[in-house]
Structure formats: C-alpha cells, structure tokens
Amino acid sequence: METIERPKTSAGAATDAMAVLAAARAAAATVVDPEIPTISITDLGVLRDVRLGADGVVEIDITPTYFGCPAMRLIALEVEAAVERAGLGRPRVQLVLAPAWTTDWITDEGRAALLAAGIAPPPPAASRRSLFSEGAAVKCPRCGSLDTETISEFGSTACKALHRCRACSEPFHAFKCL
Amino acid sequence: MTTIAVAETPLVLALLRLADTCLVHSHRLAEWCGHAPMIEEDLALANLALDLLGQARALYAYAAEVEGRGRTEDDLAYLRDAPQFRNLLIAELPRGDFAFTILRVFLLSAHAHPFWQATVRSTDARLAAIAAKAEKEAAYHLRHSGEWTVRLGDGTEESRRRVLAAIDALWPYTGELFELDEVDRTLLADGVLPDPAAIRPAWEATVARVFGEALLPRPADGWLQTGGRCGRHTEHLGHLLAVMQHLQRAYPGLSW
User: Fold this and answer.
1) Least enclosed by CB within 10 Å: which of A28, B35, B151, B175?
2) Do B52 and A64 touch (CB under 8 A)?
3) What are phi and psi of B74, to 5 degrees?
C-alpha cells in the first residue's frame, strides 16, 4: 500500500520548529541546581541557549558558575534526560565559558527562590568589593537584619559563603558575589 | 605502564604549564581535607583545591584539543610522568604546616590574579574565556590567603615564627613566576600570553601591602630555583604523582 505523505509547507515546518524549541526550553527549564534544588538552572543563569541544529537536533548551551562545580556534569545529564523525556530526542548539550557567568545572571525569580531557601542572594556584581576591603553588609535571610558577620568565605559548596546574624543569632548561607 | 608523549607545540606547552601548576597545587591543598585546624578552614582549603582543579580541567581539555591526537584531560593528568610535568616547583613542595600552605596560596594567587586579569585580553579566545572565570576565583583565593597571612604574621609568637620560616622556604621558588623563555616569547609576540614583566609590579605591590600589614619582611631575591617549567622537578613530585595517578596506573582505562 502506498502511503501518501503530506508535503510540509515551509510555514508549517517553521511552526513545528518553534513548537519543538518551546517544548525543549520548557523541558530544560524544569532542571534545578542539585545543590540548591529550589532554583532552576534558568533562574540561576546556567542555561544559556536552546536552539535547533541544522539537523533538527536540539542544542543546549550551559555555563559553569565555578570551574570546579561538581554539579555541572549532573546538570548536563539532567538536561539531556528532561529533553528526551519530553519526546524531543537526545539533545546536544555543551559547556560554554564565554561570556563568563557572574551572579548578575541570576534572575529576580532566582533571587527570590534563594531567599526562600534561607540563602542570602548575592549583591550586584558591580558592587564586587576590591581585594582587601570590607564588603557590603549581607542581609539575614531569616530576620532581615543587616547586623551580620562573615564566618567563612567558603561554605558547603563553591558558590556559598558562611555568615551569622548578630540580631537573631542564626547562621546562614550567602551566595558568593562573582 | 602507559605513558604518553605529548606533542608540545608552544601553545600546548604553555597550557600544560598553567594546568600542571593548578593541578599539583590543587592536590597539595586537597591533602588538608580532614586535617585543617578548624572546620571553616577545612572547607576553605578544599574549596580552593576544587577551584584550581576546575581551572586545570578547562586548561587540559583545551590543551588536548589543540594537540589534536584524540587525548582527553584525564590522559594529560594521569598518563604523564614527573619529567613531563611543567608545573612551577613552588606548587609541588610538600604541604608543610598551615603557615606554609597559606603563604604558598598567597604568593601564587597574588600572581594568578593579575595574570588572569591580563589574560582576559588574550588573542586566544578560548584562553581569554578561561581567564575571565579564573580571575574571579583567584580574587577569592588572594583575599583569603592575604587575610590569613596578616593574621599569622601579626599574630602570636608561634604563628609568626612559622610564617617567617615559610617565607624562607618558599621565597627561592618565586623567581619561576616571572620567567620568560623562547616559548613564552613566541606566545607573548602573538598576544596569547601577557608579559611577565607587566604582571610583576602588581605582584610586588600585593606582597608589599600584605607583608607590610603582617609585619613581615620581604626577603632579598638572592639565588632563585628554577626548572619546573622544563620538567626538572624536586624529588617530591614523583611521590605526589604516585598517589594521584595510582588508580589509572594500576587499572589502566578504569572509569567510575
């Protein structure tokens, strides 16, 4: 039996491509940072680009926050899995370095998600302090006081520092400004 | 036992020198994991090690691509012997005490910070991208080690004695930071690497400022040790590699 293939108009192909792209974006956006599972990689600014390759394969660019971040491999795998689960085939996920990620890539939604998780969001990178000067006060994510101190600039993950609130006495994590 | 011979074009060699210094220093810092004087410092030293390991990986991956023989970052890290390593000697010295460890991070990151800042303007786009990230990490390393240097130098009699001994031990190895050989000149002419002479004033200024605050003397340069960048190492590197490369040597090709 002969199958009659309906010829695709170019407009139809473009619509399909846009639908695939939108579905791929939505799928990739469901991936969260494994270390801070309340923030998506979109809001973290780790997801840089989702596009369709010439061969119709979904191509996704992600960027590391810190070079040594051990979560990057897992994030890449989860992006791959999310796109495949959405029925869009196996995407090509690649790591891009430029432009370098800074904390300014975190969206307002991402900052709110950090705060809700008890992690003080970073100040704008423009306020990155000069080498040996005191940094701007970090607001306590619990009580909102600015009367806080740094315990250590290095915390449980590469991207977080340890602070303590003098007002409510709670220790807390702050996202490091990069 | 498999040992690879890397085709060291000027760019590959320059990348290996940077990557090997990051990796070997990272290994020395990681040796502190579980041994640091307090939990915050344990985390800090492990974080520094992780940053340097990440930088090394990016540099090795690029070196392997440039070499173009299908090797990976792992091949470069695990399948070369000590004479093929190109790291600065200062990075491979045994970890010593806490003062020694901190001062080494300080002397190296006081160089790395302006070095990566300048390399952001490299004509090599990939190296420039690596530099843009490494520069931000180096700033954290420099601040952390600089603050500790002040605390140790202007601290107790004991901490001061230890950091003074560290200066004596480490200073002869600082000359290598500013060496310039034919390979460097080629890359300098092409705008790939910055001129060490242009990095030196920033390094000197940071050392003068921190040592000044720490009440520590900057020694005269005197005789300076050299050799690491050409593969002539101290006896310590072989022992470090024996630990670091053990798994790949015992079970070639093993993967997790």
Assistant:
1) B35
2) no
3) -65, -40
- Residue-wise pLDDT for B9-20, tens only, equals 999 999 999 999
How far is the C-alpha of A160 from the C-alpha of A151, rounded, in Å? 12
Helix (H, G, I), strand (E, B) or coil at A48: strand
Q: What is the DSSP letter of B34?
A: T
Reported as a single tens digit per residue, the pLDDT across B116-141 is 999 999 999 999 999 999 999 999 99
Q: Which of B52, B130, B144 sits opposite A97 (nearest CB)?
A: B130
In a domain, A76, yes or no: yes
CA dihedral sign of residues A60, A65, A70, A74: negative
| B52, B26 contact by CB (below 8 A) | yes
How far apart are the CA of A157 and the nearest CA of chain B, in angstroms? 8
Interchain proximity B137–A155, CB inside 8 Å: no
The interface predicted TM-score (ipTM) is 0.79
Peptide bond into B219 cis (omega under 30): no
| Closest of A171, B138, B25 to residue A163, by C-alpha | A171
Asked if the Cβ–Cβ distance from B40 to A151 is below 8 Å, we say yes
Say if the Cβ atoms of B140 and A176 lie within 8 Å. yes
Pull the structure tokens for residue B8.
Answer: 């060291």
Set of chain A residues whose Cβ sits within 8 Å of the Cβ of B105: none
The Cα B208–Cα A59 span in angstroms is 49
How far apart are the C-alpha atoms of B214 and B191, rounded to whole Å? Answer: 37
* Residue type at B146 in one-letter notation: G
Q: pTM of the full predicted structure?
A: 0.90
Go through the domains of chain B in sequence order and give each one's CATH number.
10-250 (1.20.1260.10)
If you count residue pairs, one on A and one on B, with CB atoms under 8 Å apart, how many are there? 80
Nearest-CB residue to B40 (from A131, A152, A178): A152
Residue A176: predicted pLDDT: 83
Question: What whole-number distance in Å separates Cα of residue B227 and Cα of residue B132?
Answer: 28
Domain that holds residue A158: 108-128+136-175
